[in-house]
């Protein structure tokens, strides 16, 4: 038995081309992809991250508030921002309220990235973790 942190540490030690070749596989079968091309496009659109301005504290607070209010899986976002399971447990240990756990995670991420962290990095992580609606709302993206 190994935990998540041990697994991630092991993966990071492998050559990147080996990891990429292992993880580069289609999730959706080709016949489903082909069939979807014949269907009319969905009305749900995802805005591409285009914002190049720095992330503000107000935006971090709003993301934390929205994710908490909507009971979103903030740990998935944390994973997309480079945090491990033990990091999430640390945030939970320091704060009893979920919005404070999320806010601290976002603030720690911003400090690691630097004061001029581009909004596009956070937008991408939000979208990858299933929070496109929050990303679009907070960063006022339109399409």
TrEMBL record:
Signal peptide positions (record): none
Domain of life from the UniProt record: Eukaryota
Domain Death stretches: 73-142
GO BP term, pick one: signal transduction
Protein name stated in the entry: Death domain-containing protein
């Amino acid at each position: 038995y190994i935990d998540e942190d041990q697994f991630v540490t092991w993966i990071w030690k492998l050559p990147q081309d080996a990891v990429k070749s292992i993880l580069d596989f289609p999730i959706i079968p080709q016949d489903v992809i082909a069939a979807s091309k014949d269907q009319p496009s969905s009305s749900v659109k995802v805005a591409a991250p285009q914002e190049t301005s720095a992330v503000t504290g107000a935006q971090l607070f709003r993301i934390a508030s929205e994710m908490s209010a909507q009971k979103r899986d903030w740990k998935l976002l944390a994973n997309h921002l480079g945090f491990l399971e033990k990091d999430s447990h640390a945030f939970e240990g320091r704060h009893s309220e979920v919005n404070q756990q999320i806010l601290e995670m976002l603030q720690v991420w911003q400090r690691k990235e630097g004061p001029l962290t581009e909004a596009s990095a956070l937008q991408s992580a939000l979208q990858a973790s299933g929070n496109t609606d929050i990303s679009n709302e907070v960063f006022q993206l339109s399409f």
